[in-house]
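Notebook B, p. 112. Complex prediction, attempt 2.
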Amino acid sequence: MRTITRTAAAGLIVAGLALAGCGSDSDGGTASDATTTTEATSSTAATGELQIEDVWARQSPMGTTMGAIYLTITSPEDDQLVAASVPTDVAGDTQIHETVMAEEDSGDMEGDMSSTTMADGAMEGDMSSTTMAGGDDMGSMTMREVDSIELPAGEAVELKPGGYHVMLIDLVKPLEVGEKIELTLTFEKAGEQTVTAEVREG
Amino acid sequence: MASRPEIGRRLLALLAVAALALVATGCGSDGGSAGGDGGSGQLEGLVRTPPLEVGATSLPQVAEDGTETPFAFKAPAGGLLFVAFGYTNCPDVCPTTLSDIRKAKEQLGDRGDQVDVAFATIDPERDTPEVMNAYLGSFVTSGGHPLRTTDADALAEVQDAFQITSKVEKKPDGTVEVAHTARSFVVDPTGEVVVEWTFGTSADAMAADLGLLLDRQT
Ligand SMILES: [Cu+2]
């Protein structure tokens, strides 16, 4: 019985990954763990320096006081991104966030799965009893603060829409295209590194 | 202990089937056939059988000064209506989706003008009419529909029609946690959802689908 359950779960994870692979930039939070293994060999930045690339923030729409910075980090050694900050004339607070399926907090496999199913419509009748009643289904996403982001040696770790982002809270003024933001990142081993984020149309 | 694995296994088996079905429709190769409506061309997004009917539901479209006009979820004749639900303090998912539909409309050139964009707030308390207009106006210059209701039941009714959910929760520390379905929709002039895009659908894929769907209408 246990084996069957595991097999079904494995199939589901594979299916979930395949789904995530369809969109060019989809990288749902739930898939990230599994994705790691497939990307482990993709970078060749074996020795040398910490690489922080493609640092950008989306132009902030009018009316919002929140923003997000995205970037790609390749560390030569196993490290962790533990903090991020921007000058106080840009935003009141800066946090490291992850966009996740809302159910992930429960840590329950079944909970995670229900979100995956909801995009499917052909099974409405079957699904209604298990998933329609609650408030957390149907691919519901939320974001949460994380303490750190793991940076395995030589692996390009992307902070990108739908995954991790550096969250800018209480923007002092809207972010405009072409603007540069000084972003200070703190790594467990590599210490503080300051890079420049460019504001793009997004 | 006996009942739990039983339930879990049933659920997982069910879900595995559902997920596989999604893979099939999501990757495009079979996209059109899932709808079974015989349309030519293959959509990148999800097509549901039977399709969701949302045309009978409506939300107030708000002007900057707070004036409300009922807006039914139907595209203008010969056009399409893009619909997304979210909140303006969402820095990641919502602007990504709206930015992608903006790019898709641009890619379609003049035909892009046939695609209206509705953005409905799930956080009306913080998203005032003024904020909603400013926000959506950052993404679309014409054909934008900022939708907002403070009537939770009215919002729930619309969300039910689209089969989505949202939750706004105030935490003890004063922060607000929001969760919502990150899917977006395209509705035709009859009020039928003709394709759904999961989060992460590229602007290119959106443009391709919109192009196909506009072709089908003319
Ligand atoms: Cu965030």
